[in-house]
Specification:
The protein is of the alpha+beta class. The protein folds into two domains: 14-96, Homing endonucleases (Endonuclease I-creI, Roll); 104-182, Roll (Endonuclease I-creI). Helices cover 40% and strands 23% of the residues. It has helices at 18-30, 45-58, 86-97, 107-118, 136-149, 171-182; strands at residues 31-34, 37-42, 65-69, 78-84, 119-122, 128-133, 154-159, 164-169. Strands 1-2-4-3 form a four-stranded antiparallel β-sheet. The protein has a four-stranded antiparallel β-sheet with strand order 5-6-8-7. β5 and β6 (128-133) form a beta hairpin. α1 (18-30) crosses α2 (45-58), α1 packs parallel to α4 (107-118) and α4 crosses α6. The chain is globular. The N and C termini lie far apart (47 Å).
């Protein structure tokens, strides 16, 4: 693969589909990485399946590995799916450290991945949709993307005690983009109960 074919500048893989951008958003939210290995940890079997499919598609020569665990705080068993691949790890890690360029057509898929990883959809109360972040850089980078795609579409708040940053979506923007997000997000699918 030539560097010219990759819009993101990586030689490990290139982002070409909505599924790729969804997986990037999901990994940035809930990604797992260690020296030479990269993957996803989740209690959702559907998210593990989606990320496994992504890893198989971009690195078919690598064997997927799975680890399950639970902690005293969890009511569910978490699964970590990963591959040992230092080139892929370095490529994905580069997305954590730089600004992102997400083509407009793939922005809903990327945002849906973020929401499925660290988002909360509250239909019962007035809070609506929000995404929590562990770092200011990460939160501001996504806020900049949101502002580029929809003026005044979201607000960013810092919760000092919790050590988190949270983006809240404005209702007008949410009504406009929700149908596009529901195409990709499992959290935003209409309730079935």
């Amino acid at each position: 693969m030539s560097n010219r074919d990759n819009t993101e500048g990586s030689t490990a893989f290139s982002l070409k589909t909505s599924s790729d951008y969804y997986s990037l958003g999901l990994w940035l939210a809930d990604g797992y990485w260690r020296t030479g290995s990269v993957g996803l940890t989740s209690i959702s079997q559907e998210l593990i399946k989606r990320f496994s499919d992504f890893l198989i598609r971009i690195r078919p020569d690598r064997q997927l590995k799975y680890r399950t665990y639970s902690t005293g705080k969890r009511k569910h068993t978490a699964v970590c799916v990963y591959v040992n691949d230092s080139l892929l790890t370095n490529s994905l890690m580069s997305f954590k450290k730089k600004s992102l360029i997400i083509p407009r057509v793939f922005f809903p898929a990327y945002l849906a991945g973020r929401i499925d990883g660290d988002g909360h959809w509250d239909q019962k109360h007035r809070t609506g949709l929000r995404i929590a972040y562990g770092s200011e850089f990460d939160a501001r980078r996504d806020l900049d993307l949101l502002l580029a795609y929809g003026v005044n579409s979201a607000s960013l708040y810092k919760y000092t005690r919790a050590g988190t940053w949270v983006i809240y979506f404005r209702k007008k923007f949410l009504r406009k983009i929700l149908p596009k997000l529901q195409v990709y997000s499992i959290k935003l699918l209409p309730r079935r109960d």
